[in-house]
């Protein structure tokens, strides 16, 4: 299918047409927190140069989600069937790093022996429309994790801001079908495609922050008891912001409340995350909790799923109240001698 263009002023019309058939989620600035919300109208969308503070993961893993409801009688418990069937959805203006996070979440939550039915159902019915980054931030390091400001992994359609218009590139069959619904879209001209290519090259070059992750997974093999964790965790407050705003972190707690079994986001940075009923806590201090976060992202996930569990979005760097920078942590591990493993075995 050929690439299309849409004038920016016509985007609300397109969203209005889409809304007749789909639930639409897009970046919205509400209460000064950029997040992906279900749209009430096309004019609500906020497509500025920044990525949202809150990642789009909660379209698939809501911060609070009811798994099922129940009623308790004198002798029995009556369960209501879980509501997992979701209508067709479109998520608009997902940045390439966040689109890649869906690919990683798919590996974790909807492949292998145990699958998350709630996540899977939403993913199955969702078309992802991306928005390329023309102006990466100083905290972005997607290119170190195999991504790119104009990357296409995890997307069905990619929009590129070419000043007064968006260039629309279909990527998957699902994306082509979506675009076919708008026969009034104009075909892109050579000049539009050339402009997008130039912006893409400039954006790639603008990602100045580089982190060497080569060999970090193997090095971490021998670092479970390394003193580095004690040093890194010194200033950490264990507030959990880095994991709540991380597009790939998907840990949750399960609670019963008012006849509902719900799950809520949780974080390995909280002391109660691994607290046993006996009172024993296998991760009793910040040192173990920091180690868990870094190990999960750069060692365990690499071993189980073949790549790092980080997309380089930089949110944990922007939002950490004590400026603990994951690039410096990975850089420090990367700079350790290569025989680190034997030191600790
Ligand atoms: S955001 Fe910073 S202070 Fe808070 S848990 Fe993460 S690293 Fe620690
Ligand atoms: S660890 Fe930090 S940089 Fe990596 S994906 Fe999560 S929030 Fe983004
Ligand atoms: S880093 Fe921590 S919160 Fe994030 S997915 Fe891993 S264990 Fe869960």
Description:
The protein contains twelve helices and twelve strands. It has helices at residues 11-18, 96-109, 117-124, 173-180, 190-206, 216-221, 228-232, 241-244, 286-305, 315-319, 326-335, 340-344; strands at 4-7, 23-30, 33-38, 64-72, 77-80, 89-94, 126-131, 157-161, 165-170, 186-187, 252-257, 260-265. The strands form two sheets. An eight-stranded mixed beta sheet has the order 3-2-6-7-8-9-1-10, with helices on both faces. A four-stranded antiparallel beta sheet has the order 5-4-12-11, with no helix packed on it. The chain has two domains: 4-206, no CATH class; 216-344, no CATH class. The longest helix is centred in the last third of the chain and has 20 residues, at 286-305. The protein is an alpha+beta fold. Strand 4 (64-72) and strand 5 (77-80) form a beta hairpin. The termini are far apart. Helix content is 32%, strand content 20%. It binds iron/sulfur cluster (3 copies). Residues 243, 249-251, 267-268, 292-293, 296-297 line the site of one iron/sulfur cluster.
């Amino acid at each position: 299918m050929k690439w299309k263009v849409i004038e920016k002023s016509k985007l609300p019309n397109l969203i209005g047409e889409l809304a007749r058939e789909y639930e639409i989620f897009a970046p919205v600035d509400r209460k000064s927190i950029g997040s992906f919300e279900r749209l009430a109208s096309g004019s609500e969308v906020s497509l500025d140069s920044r990525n949202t503070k809150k990642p789009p993961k909660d379209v698939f893993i809501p911060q609070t989600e009811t798994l099922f409801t129940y009623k308790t009688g004198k002798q029995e418990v009556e369960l209501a069937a879980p509501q997992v069937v979701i209508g067709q959805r479109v998520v608009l203006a997902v940045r390439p790093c966040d689109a890649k996070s869906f690919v990683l979440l798919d590996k974790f939550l909807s492949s292998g022996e145990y699958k998350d039915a709630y996540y899977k159902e939403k993913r199955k019915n969702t078309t992802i429309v991306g928005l390329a980054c023309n102006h990466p931030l100083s905290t972005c390091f997607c290119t170190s994790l195999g991504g790119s400001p104009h990357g296409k992994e995890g997307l069905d359609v990619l929009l590129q801001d070419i000043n007064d218009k968006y260039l629309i590139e279909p990527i998957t069959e699902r994306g082509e079908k979506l675009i076919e619904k708008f026969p009034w879209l104009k075909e892109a001209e050579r000049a539009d495609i050339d402009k997008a290519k130039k912006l893409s090259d400039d954006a790639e070059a603008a990602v100045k922050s580089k982190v060497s992750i080569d060999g970090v997974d193997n090095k971490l093999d021998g670092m479970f008891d390394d003193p580095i964790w004690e040093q890194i965790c010194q200033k950490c407050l264990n507030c959990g912001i880095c994991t709540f705003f991380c597009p790939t972190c998907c840990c949750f707690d399960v609670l019963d409340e008012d006849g509902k079994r719900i799950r809520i986001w949780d974080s390995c940075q909280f002391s109660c995350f691994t607290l046993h009923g006996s009172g024993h806590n296998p991760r009793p201090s910040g040192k173990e909790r920091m180690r868990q976060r870094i190990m999960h992202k750069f060692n365990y996930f690499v071993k189980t799923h073949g790549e790092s569990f980080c997309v380089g979005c930089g949110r944990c760097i922007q939002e950490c109240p004590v400026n603990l920078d994951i690039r410096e942590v990975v850089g420090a591990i990367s700079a350790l001698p290569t025989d680190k493993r034997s030191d600790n075995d």
